[in-house]
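Tip: read the tokens left to right.
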């Protein structure tokens, strides 16, 4: 089977996403760019992550958007494809529905660089993409636009998306994101927060 090790990594990342509380049920989705740079692997639609085997992972043609495999790809196929096409540096993508960061996405408020970890995880404050229906091309376009050259973005009234050089980096970024969002919201209750500047290196 092609890309067996990468398929296993996609499954492990999806299970970690679920166990970290970054999503519930079959929500969210995980993908990785293949070494051939012509295809990417993505989690299938509506199958419990903990039951997945390598054959369940769907292979998508990056240029055409067509796919092969025994399952349908995640509904957010176009979202992942749009980001890979716009960002050749993106090696992997994790899209999740973490409750705290999603509160910012509902309020349509960007996440400033509130703690040092943010300045390593994100290039600048994380913006909120304009609303688009799940699975729509509009959602993909809005997300690519708001992501820009940053490493993360919020999807209005939906969740977050993080890119990384690899799956581990994209997932770790989601974890930093939700913790930082909680710190930010608490800091607004405590007083007037002070934010950090982006790192220059
Ligand atoms: Zn979603």
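Filled-in amino acids:
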């Amino acid at each position: 089977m092609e890309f067996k090790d990468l398929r296993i990594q996609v499954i492990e990342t999806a299970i970690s996403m679920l166990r970290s509380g970054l999503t519930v049920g079959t929500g969210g989705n995980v993908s990785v760019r293949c070494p051939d740079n012509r295809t990417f692997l993505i989690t299938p639609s509506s199958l419990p992550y903990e039951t997945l085997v390598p054959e369940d992972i769907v292979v998508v043609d990056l240029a055409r958007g067509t796919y092969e495999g025994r399952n349908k790809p995640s509904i957010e196929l176009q979202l992942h494809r749009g980001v890979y096409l716009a960002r050749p540096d993106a090696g992997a993508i994790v899209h999740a529905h973490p409750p705290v960061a999603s509160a910012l996405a509902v309020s349509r408020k960007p996440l400033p660089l509130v703690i040092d970890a943010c300045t390593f995880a994100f290039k600048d404050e994380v913006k909120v993409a304009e609303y688009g229906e799940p699975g729509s091309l509009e959602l993909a376009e809005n997300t690519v636009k708001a992501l820009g050259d940053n490493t993360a973005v919020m999807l209005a009234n939906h969740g977050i998306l993080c890119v990384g050089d690899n799956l581990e980096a994209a997932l770790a970024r989601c974890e930093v994101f939700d913790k930082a969002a909680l710190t930010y919201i608490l800091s607004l209750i405590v007083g007037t927060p002070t934010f950090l500047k982006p790192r220059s290196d």
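The domain at 4-190 is CATH 3.40.225.10 (L-fuculose-1-phosphate Aldolase). The two ends are 40 Å apart (CA to CA).
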